[in-house]
Write a structure and sequence with these properties.
Elements: H1 3-38, H2 40-51, E1 52-57, E2 64-65, E3 71-83, H3 91-105, H4 109-116, E4 123-129, H5 131-143, E5 150-159, H6 167-170, H7 182-186, H8 188-192, E6 196-201, E7 214-217, E8 224-227, H9 231-248, E9 254-260, E10 266-272, H10 286-293, H11 297-312, H12 315-318, H13 328-338, E11 346-349, E12 352-353, E13 362-363, E14 371-374, H14 375-381, H15 384-394, H16 396-405, H17 433-439, H18 449-460, E15 464-466, E16 471-475, E17 481-484, E18 489-492, H19 496-512, E19 526-533, E20 545-553, E21 560-567, H20 576-594, H21 603-606, E22 610-612, H22 621-629, E23 634-638, E24 646-648, E25 654-656, E26 660-664, E27 671-673, H23 682-692, E28 695-700, E29 708-713, E30 720-722, E31 726-733
Parallel strand pairs: 2-8, 23-26, 28-31
Antiparallel strand pairs: 1-6, 2-3, 3-4, 3-5, 6-7, 8-16, 9-10, 9-21, 11-14, 12-13, 15-18, 16-17, 19-20, 20-21, 22-25, 24-26, 27-30, 29-31
Helix pairs in contact: 1-2, 3-4, 3-5, 9-20, 10-11, 13-15, 13-19, 14-19, 15-17
Length: 739
């Protein structure tokens, strides 16, 4: 080989080497950087997915308590049944396990056999298995000496011990224990905890390896919640709503909210009709379920979804409504704060008012008019012309300024999902004069019940808008407090002086005005009725209404405010004074004593206060009569004996002064059927009860008022009871001209 050829080969080799050094190595380096740095995390994840199976284990969800630590929602243990095919090493073992699970779990045997042949150490065959089934599986494994191939893993199922109690507030969870509504959804991150993991290695063939290659990461339990809700107050409210819905044939549910006026704590929030959160996907209303079942199949799913959404909807925060005359307490506050009206200001009502030249007259609910009246009387009469006049004095700009300041223009921010905004005439507050006129009496704009009760609480507490909230404390798994929800005062909307003046007027309204059906002897109630027409929402040719009452007590030192709201009553009455005010009184009669608020009777009420029935059993006739007479009670003797063997009513019962105790002196007894008292006046009740030998306990408003009638009786008509039994009769004022 010549020297020239060797030199050329050397040169070519150098060129190739240079190309490799300056081009090949950078390409190789770029490839390494791309694989290790740019795609490193992605490739590592893909490798892990090929090498590991990651199975989630649900954590135990935190408990939801009422304010007195009574559990309202808790997680009970259930189990997931798992096959471990990699440990099933014989057909005999496969047949044994699959046959047993077919019988215990009612799962198709062929399907189980197919699952048992998978290349896996972990195959779920059934979730949410209850304790009785779990015990059968453990017994089966023990009896057949099965140590591998079949496994139980603890899981949790949400349980609501009081069924539909406070369902709209609590909400419910889904199949994977995730919160889907109410507190469960809003506090999902707090309640759910951190799930655990089962990490199982796979071999090169993709088969899961035995459990010595398995790693268990235990779940972390969720935190618990202590609500502001009081279980007893909630029950009083729910009972009242259920009775009101039945009595007044309410078509579109009812709601009530009770709030601590000083802290914003929601002591009760009830919505009826509701649902059972243990079975949230079941239509709660049997009539609605029957209607949906009768639909064609293609329409059924949509109708069911709509019905479920309807029953889950929290009417207290998600529905807007025309507040009606309840809003007049806010308009009155505006007028007094601006000093465009005072308690002595005079208004003349002729039955209607023409707000400006060329406008159509707007009528008062009392068509004949209220005549000359001062401002306190105008509020007690719920006089529309008076409040239209007041609205004009306030003016558009001031009206909207106070409207926003009272909190109606924004959501309250309550810690529940699904809160709606108001529906005002315009976002910037611009209104035509006619809009101002109807707004001043609570018509043609929509607010939510939670906004209305928050505004009422401001009047009760001295003028401060407080933040409403459901949760009081967040607790760790050991019950230690990790966070307190402190009261938040957002702003002062009216002066303390104005608030006291409005409160005084609302108290007068409950004593002598349209709100007298909310009167409770011994307690100073302040409040306002509301009756609003559902304009544009009624069926053709019909007029539907919302009946409401909003008030607070005691008026001289307010502690609790409550709004009661019935949507579309179809009974004999629809006025708030006849439908909602008695419901407010019925609930408050239980709530106020429960809260430890003492009754303070005036002289007139003291004369009618109930007497505690003494124990007269064992006394001779003369002693028994004298003991009863000393308490202003009468006696009737039944039997021929010399001593009292039994009595009706029983000792420690409460009956009015002048009531009668039936004294039995032998084994003879006498029963009668309860007559119908509903619809009777006080005098008619007294004569009817006297004729059959029953004691009556009269409750409700001042009984000397004209046109007072019984609205409900504690023992139904036709029930057979002993002579002398006490029946509680609730009275309401049936003046149809009231609001």
């Amino acid at each position: 080989m010549s020297k020239g050829v060797t030199i050329r080969m050397q040169r070519r080799s150098m060129i190739v080497l240079i190309i490799l050094v300056f081009i090949g190595f950078p390409l190789l380096a770029f490839r390494l950087i791309n694989l290790q740095i740019i795609q490193g995390e992605f490739l590592q994840k893909k490798a892990s997915e090929q090498q590991l199976t990651d199975t989630k284990i649900n954590s135990k969800r935190g408990t939801i308590f009422d304010r007195n630590m009574k559990p309202l929602a808790q997680s009970a243990s259930v189990w997931t049944v798992v096959l471990e095919p990699s440990y099933i090493d014989s057909d005999e073992k496969r047949e044994l396990i699959c046959s047993g699970m077919h019988e215990i779990l009612d799962i198709d045997k062929n399907k189980l056999i197919e699952l048992s042949k998978k290349r896996s150490c972990y195959t779920i065959i059934k979730k949410k298995v209850e304790s009785d089934i779990k015990d059968k599986i453990i017994e089966f494994k023990t009896k057949n000496k099965i140590t591998s191939g079949l496994r139980l893993i603890e899981d949790y199922k949400r349980y609501y011990p009081f069924k539909n109690f406070a369902a709209a507030v609590l909400g419910f969870t889904g199949a994977d224990s995730q919160g889907l509504a109410g507190v469960e959804a809003y506090y999902e991150k707090t309640l759910k905890g951190e799930p655990g993991r089962i990490l199982t290695a796979r071999n090169a063939l993709g088969t899961e390896m035995p459990f010595e290659y398995e790693q268990l990461v235990n779940p972390t339990p969720g935190c618990s919640l202590k609500l502001c809700i009081d279980e007893c107050i909630q029950r009083f409210m729910e009972k009242t709503l259920e009775e009101g819905i039945k009595t007044h044939k309410v078509k579109n549910r009812a709601t009530a909210i009770a709030m601590d006026v000083n802290t914003g704590e929601i002591l009760g929030m009830a919505v009826k009709g509701d649902f059972d959160p243990n079975e949230p996907f079941k239509i709660a209303n049997p009539e609605e379920e029957q209607r949906i079942s009768a639909l064609p199949e293609e329409e059924r799913a949509k109708a069911k979804n709509e019905a479920l959404s309807y029953q889950w909807r929290n009417k207290a925060i998600s529905d807007t409504y025309y507040p009606g005359s309840v809003f007049k307490m806010v308009t009155a506050s505006m007028g007094l704060e601006l000093d465009v009206v005072n308690e002595r200001s005079n208004f003349n009502c002729t039955g209607s008012i023409k707000p400006y030249e060329g406008a159509r007259p707007i009528g008062c609910h009392k068509r004949s008019g209220h005549g000359s009246q001062n401002f306190v009387e105008a509020l007690c009469h719920s006089c529309n012309p008076a409040f239209i006049t007041l609205g004009q004095r306030i003016g558009v700009e001031n009206f909207f300024k106070f409207y926003k300041s009272f909190g109606f223009h924004n959501k309250t921010g309550i810690d529940l999902p699904g809160e709606s905004s108001d529906l005002f005439f315009s976002a910037d507050g611009s209104m035509a004069l006619i809009d101002l006129c109807v707004a001043s009496m609570g018509q043609n704009f929509g607010v939510t019940p939670i906004q209305m009760i928050t505004a009422a609480a401001a009047i009760a507490n001295g003028g401060n808008i407080v933040q409403p909230h459901i949760v009081k404390e967040i607790l760790d798994e050991n019950g230690n407090i990790i966070k307190r929800i402190d009261p938040i005062i957002k702003r002062q909307v009216i002066s303390e002086k104005t608030a006291k003046r409005v409160t005084s007027m609302l108290y007068e309204n409950a004593v002598h005005g349209a709100a007298k059906n909310a009167y409770i002897p011994g307690y100073r109630v302040a409040g306002k009725t509301g009756t609003s027409e559902k304009i544009g929402l009624s069926a053709p040719g019909q007029k539907d209404y919302i009946s409401s009452f909003c008030g607070f007590a005691p008026a001289d030192d307010p502690k609790i405010a409550m709004l009661v709201f019935f949507d579309t009553p179809k009974g004999e009455q629809y006025y708030g004074s006849a439908v909602a005010a008695p419901a407010f009184a019925a609930a408050m009669q239980d709530i106020l004593p429960y809260m430890g608020i003492e009754k303070v009777y005036n002289e007139e009420e003291l004369e009618k206060i109930d007497t505690v029935v003494p124990d007269l059993v064992g006394k001779n006739i003369s002693e028994a009569k004298n003991a009863a007479a000393s308490l202003s009670l009468n006696t009737t003797i039944i039997g021929n004996g010399n001593a009292v063997t039994s009595q009706t009513p029983d000792a420690s019962s409460h009956i009015p002064k002048g009531g009668t105790i039936i004294l039995h002196t032998d084994s003879s007894s006498s029963n009668i059927k309860v007559p119908k008292f509903i619809g009777l006046s006080v005098s008619e009740v007294n004569s009817t009860a006297s004729a059959v030998g029953l004691n009556t306990k009269l409750s409700g408003l001042k009984l000397e008022e004209p046109d007072v009638k019984v609205s409900s009786q504690s023992i139904p008509e036709g029930t057979e009871v002993p002579v002398g039994t006490v029946i509680t009769l609730n009275f309401v004022h049936n003046d149809s001209s009231g609001e």
